[in-house]
Amino acid sequence: MKTIELVFATNNQNKLNEIRSILKEPFQIITLQDAGIDIDIPEPHQTLEANASEKSGSIHQLTHKNCFSEDTGLEVFSINGEPGVKSARYAGEGRNFQDNIHLLLKNLEGKSDRTAQFRTVVSLIWDDAEFFFTGICKGTIIEKQKGTEGFGYDSIFVPEGSSYTFAEMGMEEKNKFSHRKKAVAQLIEFLKQKVS
Ligand code: IMP
């Protein structure tokens, strides 16, 4: 099958590593660095869909190539879906993972319901049309951080069906449960049909 080139609109190296472990041949990921683009992509909106769309749209305008982006939020049910779309900046503009985790654990003190989900929305721009794919991973927020792998909220999230946090798993194991993997699996199916 012919190689399918896609620009991935992210500056997040962790996401890039995860997506590379999922999107293999015939797909070829072009990073923003490969494309010579050095911008801080804005995420100004109130929904994951709108932010994903903003990211893929702005990179498509610059590259005129097929491209995709993703926006992910951790939604904790007992606090009205927080941090949600604000996941990266929950504790402030510094985007500091540890501060975000500490604030979340503080806001969950005394709550008996610690169920949550990661939700990833992928926006694909393919032949100038936009398509969305969503992946959800349900789980629980534990009280103390465990594990050193991964990024973001991985060390406090135990997915349903496991007793380990994402930060205690290698990438292959995380991908058995992951929101991002589920969204990208749909993207792959969609593109396979487009190019077959
Ligand atoms: P964004 O999609 O780059 O806006 O990420 C939102 C926030 O959620 C960031 O703070 C990330 O660290 C966090 N996040 C996104 N995906 C994951 C994940 O797979 N595990 C843990 N945290 C994540």
Question: Would you write up a description of this structure?
Answer:
It contains 5 helices and 7 strands; from the N terminus they run βαβαββαβββαα. With 196 residues, it is α/β, with parallel strands linked by helices. It has a single domain, classed as Maf protein, CATH 3.90.950. Strands 1, 2, 3, 4, 5, 6 and 7 form a 7-stranded mixed beta sheet that branches. A hairpin with a 2-residue loop joins strand 5 (115-126) and strand 6. The protein is globular. The termini are close together. The mean pLDDT is 94. Inosinic acid binds next to strand 3 and helix 3.
Task: Please give the structural blueprint.
Blueprint (H helix, E strand, L loop, with lengths): L3 E5 L4 H10 L4 E4 L17 H16 L3 E10 L5 E3 L12 H11 L7 E12 L2 E13 L15 E3 L11 H7 L1 H17 L1
The structure holds inosinic acid.
Short characterization:
The chain has 196 residues and is α/β, with parallel strands linked by helices. The chain has helices at residues 13-22, 48-63, 97-107, 171-177, 179-195, and strands at 4-8, 27-30, 67-76, 82-84, 115-126, 129-141, 157-159.
Radius of gyration of CA atoms, rounded to a whole number: 17 Å
Poorly predicted tracts of residues: none
N-to-C CA distance: 8 Å
CATH architecture identity: Alpha-Beta Complex
CATH structural fold name: Maf protein
Using DSSP, what is the number of strands? 7
Class inferred from helices and paired strands: alpha/beta
Bound molecules: inosinic acid
Instruction: Please report the first level of CATH classification, the CATH class.
Output: Alpha Beta
Total of DSSP H or I helical runs spanning 4+ residues: 5
* SSE sequence, one letter per element: EHEHEEHEEEHH
Quickly count the domains: 1
Give the % helix.
Answer: 25-40%
Which band does the percent of strand residues land in?
A: 25-35%
Tell me about the largest β-sheet: 7 strands, mixed
Mean pLDDT: 94
